[in-house]
Design goal:
GO terms for molecular function: metal ion binding; sulfur dioxygenase activity. The chain is of the alpha+beta class. It has 7 helices and 17 strands.
Length: 300
């Protein structure tokens, strides 16, 4: 049975979000939903998440799960907003889910940002073991562990489709950075080989697409290509690429690229499963922003 797949592109962070539904029961999952964050004005809005809710409403779906591939460092998760909105509309509780290694990343960033332990407890309703199965109506989903980009990174296989998050990108983009805490280029290489061992017609749905800036190569964002297309044309992984070459290139590249623009805001929200910090001021959430300063200016 083929699932119904609704890809939704969020252009500010170049993120793909997905609504994936069972054609028989109308049960669905939402994968990697995005909260809109205006970094110039420090304002969070919900247009992108509301567009996903509009699909659910118009198609008369009921949401079985809200699925995160990992703790994202480049956008804020809308999982909690969607869960709360559905609950307010009288729909059953839709659990927020991730892989079990999400706790590793939570612990790292809880220490970095002084996040109270109680704000992390139960932030995710279900943590999947590697290759654990779950039901989406008459469909079977498989929670895959796909580390390398981050220590907690995973994906979801539904039918002949794999939602790969930020492990592999479309062929002209290549692969994900590995310089976040717990990331590792050799580990990512092994993850990529696992993905490329799927049958050639398997569709790999990506977490981002960054269309070329070169006008001659311009194209619309792509949500997926097949395993065969990746093996033949991915600029980092074409047949004949070696692990040694990949690791050397990936490490050199990651050493010079800048961190995501909203990484501090994203990590503080996303380790909480999309919830805002408990601290607030004048009706606004308080997020920490780390700044490198001379040691002589530090007072504590």
């Amino acid at each position: 049975m083929k699932p119904i797949i609704h890809p939704v592109f969020e252009p500010t962070t170049c993120s793909w979000q997905y609504v994936v539904a069972c054609p028989i029961t109308s049960a669905c999952v939402i994968i990697d939903p995005v909260l809109d964050f205006d970094i110039a004005h420090f304002r969070v809005t919900t247009e992108s998440a509301d567009s996903l809710l509009d699909i659910v409403t118009k198609q008369e779906y009921h949401v079985a799960y809200l699925l995160e591939t990992h703790i994202h460092g480049d956008h804020l998760s809308a999982a909690y907003y969607i869960q709360s909105t559905l609950w307010a509309r009288g729909q059953p509780h839709a659990p927020i889910c991730a892989g079990e290694n999400v706790t590793i990343v939570q612990n790292i960033f809880a220490h970095k940002y002084n996040i109270p332990k109680e704000e992390l407890e139960n932030s995710f309703d279900r943590l999947f073991h590697s290759d654990e199965t779950f039901r989406i109506g008459e469909l079977t989903g498989v929670a895959m562990y796909l580390p390398g980009h981050t220590a907690d990174h995973g994906g979801y296989k539904i039918g002949t489709n794999v939602f790969v998050g930020d492990s592999i990108f479309n062929p002209d983009v290549g692969t994900a950075r590995c310089d976040f805490p717990g990331g590792d280029a050799s580990t990512l290489w092994r993850t990529l080989q696992r993905l490329l061992n799927f049958p050639p017609d398997t569709r790999l749905y990506v977490g981002h697409d960054y269309p070329p800036s070169n006008e001659a190569a311009a194209r619309d964002p792509l949500s997926f290509v097949t395993v065969q297309e990746q093996k033949e044309t991915n600029k980092h992984l074409k047949d004949g690429s070696t692990e040694e070459d990949f690791v050397q290139w990936r490490n050199q590249r990651d050493h010079v690229i800048t961190e995501p623009q909203m990484v501090h805001q994203a990590m503080q929200v996303n380790v909480r499963g999309g919830k805002m910090p408990g601290r607030s001021h004048d009706g606004k959430a308080l997020l920490q922003y780390l700044v490198t300063v001379p040691k002589t200016l530090l007072t504590g």
